[in-house]
Amino acid sequence: MSVEQAPVQRADFDQVMVPNYAPAAFIPVRGAGSRVWDQSGRELIDFAGGIAVNVLGHAHPALVGALTEQANNLWHVSNVFTNEPALRLAKKLVDATFAERVFFCNSGAEANEAAFKLARRVAFDRFGEEKYEIIAALNSFHGRTLFTVNVGGQSKYSDGFGPKITGITHIPFNDLDALKAAISDKTCAVVLEPIQGEGGVLPAEQAYLQGARELCDQHNALLVFDEVQTGMGRTGHLFAYQHYGVTPDILTSAKSLGGGFPIAAMLTTEDLAKHLVVGTHGTTYGGNPLACAVGNAVFDVINTPDVLQGVEAKHQLFKTRLEKIGQQYGVFTQVRGLGLLLGCVLSDAWKGRAKDIFNAAEKENLMILQAGPDVVRFAPSLVVEEADITEGLDRFERAIKHLTA
């Protein structure tokens, strides 16, 4: 028997929630594929994907089935015990990547926290306490914990929370000379996103990642790739490092890994993993059976030639049409990104107005994203149907047309 739920509305947010978010004026209540319905029954097309999370859209039958089946069996046992879904998912990740060991947690920030702690622990054990410095890129984003927000290269997120964590240096992205000048034998890790996501959907250059790999090897530093946003098929490869052919020492994954269910992973080699001995790191919910059951289903659907090759075809559909819209209305100068992580770089006349475009799209029943004030971001489901792409981009063009009229 179901209990009658009290009605809620958007105005309730301002009464009961901490005001650290400014959500849209409508409340989504149901999703199917790349369509979402709000409280009033209005249908929207979803090109936001929960910020590159809903990798198989909404209510994908394989994910719903996996979650339901697991929900009837076992939810949580803690890390005092292991569980079957976690072992299955870890094996799949190991078989499909450079990694030999997996650590499960619940969010991208937690995966990065684990990666940075591992990098410092390895350096401490092998070289002593002087080797703890981390180099990261300006405009990078690695999470909101105190450690990860300090490694992230955006002071607007890290200022105002007391003393900064020491030993972190920020250098311009895609600038190999700057990295050369900054790295030293005190560096324990270089941390990079293969595509800067929040920083404006900016892909790394091939030579930059290769150069970073070589510099890390020369200085006994670890190369960490934050693939929280780029991982799990987003670029048309299972992970973006495979697109570049540059192998990191540590890789972090989250967002798409659970297709909307909170799960994250840190992947690394056996040689490095052995430094996290029993008791050195942990998380209560990490690797719980519910999350890992869903993760297994996500993995099985995505890691297929059909889906991964489909990403490239869908990329071309988006890119061609978006470039045409950009030229016709003079709103963006460039469409960049890989696979189904795309950024439209606003022209000088439209700089700072990504939020206006977001709002205009919503009025046309389309959900999109921004990546800073100057870039409009698209991160749709990897299995978004062609008809939805066409219709969604029609709506986007109408929004731009109205905005520029």
Description:
It is a single chain. The protein has 405 residues and is an alpha/beta fold. The protein folds into 2 domains: 10-59 and 305-404, Aspartate Aminotransferase, domain 1, CATH 3.90.1150.10; 74-302, 3-Layer(aba) Sandwich (Aspartate Aminotransferase, domain 2). The protein is 39% helix and 18% strand. The chain contains 15 helices and 17 strands. The protein has helices at residues 13-16, 49-52, 61-71, 84-96, 108-127, 146-151, 155-158, 176-182, 206-218, 240-244, 270-273, 289-302, 305-329, 354-363, 386-404; strands spanning 28-32, 35-38, 43-46, 101-105, 133-137, 168-171, 187-192, 195-196, 202-203, 222-226, 250-253, 264-268, 332-338, 341-346, 366-367, 369-370, 375-378. The protein has a 7-stranded mixed β-sheet with strand order 4-12-11-10-7-5-6, with helices on both faces. Helix 4 (84-96) packs parallel to helix 12. The termini are far apart. The model has no long low-confidence stretch (mean pLDDT 97). Pathway: Amino-acid biosynthesis; L-arginine biosynthesis; N(2)-acetyl-L-ornithine from L-glutamate: step 4/4. Keywords: Amino-acid biosynthesis, Aminotransferase, Arginine biosynthesis, Cytoplasm, Pyridoxal phosphate, Transferase. Belongs to the class-III pyridoxal-phosphate-dependent aminotransferase family. ArgD subfamily. Its EC number is 2.6.1.11. GO terms for molecular function: identical protein binding; N2-acetyl-L-ornithine:2-oxoglutarate 5-aminotransferase activity; pyridoxal phosphate binding.
